[in-house]
Amino acid sequence: MSQSSPKLQLKNPLLFLLQKSQTLLQVLQIHAQLITTNLFSNAFAASRLLDTIVSKIYNVNHAELVFAQIHQPNSFICNTMVKCYTKSSTPERALRFYAEMRRKGLLGDNYTYPLVLKACGAMCGLLEGKLVQGETMKRGFGSDVFVVNGLISMYCRCGEPDYARVAFDGFSEKDLVSWNSMLAGYVGCEEMEKAQNLFDEMPERDVVSWSIMIDGYGKKMGDVKRARAFFDGMPTKDVVSRNSMIDGYAKVGEVEAAREIFDKMLQKNVISWSIMIDGYVRHGDSKEALNLFRQMLCQGIKPDRVSVVGAVSACSQLGALDQGRWIHLYMKRNRLLLDIVVQTALVDMYLKCGSLDEACRIFNCMPERNVVTWSVMIVGLGMNGYGKKALECFARMEKERIPMDDLIFLGVLMACSHANLVTEGLRIFNRMRDAYRLEPKLEHYGCLIDLLGRAGQLDEAQNIIQSMPMKPNAVLWGSLLLACRIHRNVDLAEILVERLAELKADDSGVYVLMSNIYADVGMWEGMIKIRKLVKERKMKKETGRSVIEVDGNVEEFISGERSHILREEIELVIWSLANMSILAG
Q1: How far does CA 537 lie from the centroid of its chain?
Q2: Which of 502, 501, 465 minimizes the C-alpha distance to 480?
Q3: pLDDT in tens, 281-302
Q4: Fewer Cβ neighbours under 10 Å: the N or C end of the chain?
Q5: Beta pairing partners, 556
Q6: 439, 473 in Cβ contact below 8 A?
Q7: Tell me: the pLDDT tens digits for 180-214?
Q8: 419: Cβ–Cβ under 8 A, 6 or more apart, which residues?
Q9: Is 546 exposed, middle or buried (0-12, 13-18, 19+ CB in 10 A)?
Q10: In whole angstroms, how large is the CA radius of gyration of the chain?
């Protein structure tokens, strides 16, 4: 093909439309036209189609279909497929594809090797990365800047910054990407002192360099004051640096500070919105997360996976089934990527909102499931009172020989706890150690204690605590204290409050619970003593909140709040219900 051929080809109306395409449907229509006009047989046209699918649409299955139809793929086409697999959740496929390339006599170039090295880093394949490095040296690419930068990133992703530093120091033609790659490597491995030293040595810095340091101190170390000092000291700020600072604040729970920067941004991208939505969800303000998601859509911003998962998770926390369904429908209509992460979030949302049929429908139609997906399904079934079905789900995993890990067993134990399946829970706990050689963690013991506590087997729960290989934490003691209220065991409750005090975990909630235990058994002196203690220590009770969904809108009610717009109507309804209950006896 002549050098002018690409320019001529770009004048073709189909290829022009391909450049402008934004959805998979548009690409499919253009693909069909390329075949019917026989333009697909042209290597340049085929390469443009494949690149669009990988770079814009990112649909692995369709990319594979297109590649299979290309009779003589060139190096650009093969590199595009390597890039496609590198971006996927299974980057090892990039290595398999590359090995197949070599078997067919297609040798890599200085664009191939960085992509393959990126795949090695994504799968933490240190051995594979070293083998690729050896091949680059043999083929004369050892001093290529793209390859060296790929090596630095690969070693850092594999947790070997010292190897990366050897490659960095041994390369004399370092560019700014080399410095930033090494800097990001130190930050990724949480070696901030070395990162700081390297930052100080840099002959030049760009916005990326400053943003890496903000990420390191903010997201990685939780030192938002240091991160803010870097942010304020930047010569120029862009969307990326502002996003880094917002993310740092959001990660440590300073959501208001994050929102302040967000609101002042003149330009926001989808990442800006996604960080804020995720931040609100993580720190319990799901209602604001949904409000922000709606604002994003109103401004014409197409949501990404993070924002969609955040919005769906917000619906899960609020029990907002109608809104969750609307978001699910929006994703379908706009052909948003429904990958394993999004589908798992949808399953979780439907289960937490009590819609088991919809959850099971998505779960059963999923082309692939990971450990988190199975765990979400098992826990959800247990929480909804379907303990037996949760155990059937676990048995199905065993039958299909799906690899088990401690997360799955945690999910099964939680399901047994919610469904009060004591015998089954104990059996599974023992199978975890005996059959799967997995050592239970504190969380597994916590589930077991909760299971026994709910069933009233408080002595057995205490015996397990005493035989545990690790020290019990406040959550575990709190779980047992809650069981004491259910079964009115005052003596044990008093001991547990002392244990929680020793751990400095005796907040107002603990004393309120102890006060209620005294009240349940008529020990009024003990109740008064506890309430006096709470008052003397000036402990603040956590504000009670409740949320309901009415006609697709989420309404939040806060205990003691008298500023609600419908306060008088709400009080009238409560008064009417109270009278009805009195009359009903």
Answers
A1: 39
A2: 465
A3: 999 899 999 999 999 999 999 9
A4: C
A5: 547
A6: no
A7: 999 999 999 999 999 999 999 999 999 999 999 99
A8: 382, 385, 386, 387, 388, 390
A9: exposed
A10: 29
Task: Output the pLDDT for position 251.
Answer: 93
Sites in the chain below the pLDDT cut of 50: 1-8
And the tokens for 252? 């440590």
The Cα angle at residue 236 between residues 233 and 237, in degrees rounded to 5 = 90
pLDDT for 4: 41
Q: What is the pTM of this model?
A: 0.75
User: Based on the number of CB atoms within 10 Å of its own CB, is 529 exposed (0-12), middle (13-18) or buried (19 or more)?
Assistant: middle
Position 137, amino acid: M
Instruction: Return d(Cα 187, Cα 157) in angstroms, integer.
Output: 11
Alpha-carbon gap, residue 458 to 86, rounded angstroms: 52
DSSP class of residue 455 equals T
Taking a C-beta distance cutoff of 8 angstroms, is the pair 381, 350 a contact? no
- CA nearest to 118, candidates 149, 144, 141: 149
Query: What is the DSSP track for 336-370?
Result: ----HHHHHHHHHHHHHTT-HHHHHHHHHH-S---
β-pairing verdict for 553-558 and 545-550:
antiparallel
Q: Write the CA distances from 230 to 38, 181, 216, 254, integer angstroms.
A: 56, 19, 11, 17
499 touches 493 (CB < 8 A): no
Report the candidate in 102, 56, 49 with the shortest Cα–Cα distance to residue 77: 49
Cα distances (angstroms) measured from residue 97 to each of 121, 139, 154, 189, 432: 16, 19, 18, 29, 37
What gap in Å lies between CA 279 and CA 255, rounded to an integer? Answer: 7
Judge whether 338 and 331 are in contact, CB under 8 Å: yes
Tokens of 121: 């880093």
CA-CA distance, 362 to 380, in Å (whole number)? 14
pLDDT at site 563: 63
pLDDT per residue over 39-79, tens digit each?
Answer: 888 888 888 989 888 888 778 888 898 999 888 888 899 99
How far from each other are the two terminal CA atoms of the chain, in whole angstroms?
91
Q: Which phi-psi region, left, alpha or beta, contains residue 319 (left: φ > 0; alpha: ψ -120 to 50)?
A: left
Residues 580 and 585: their CA atoms lie apart, in Å, by 9
* Distance in angstroms (rounded) separating the CA atoms of residues 180 and 175: 9
> Which residue carries 């979030």 as its tokens?
345
Q: Tell me, what amino acid is at 267?
A: Q
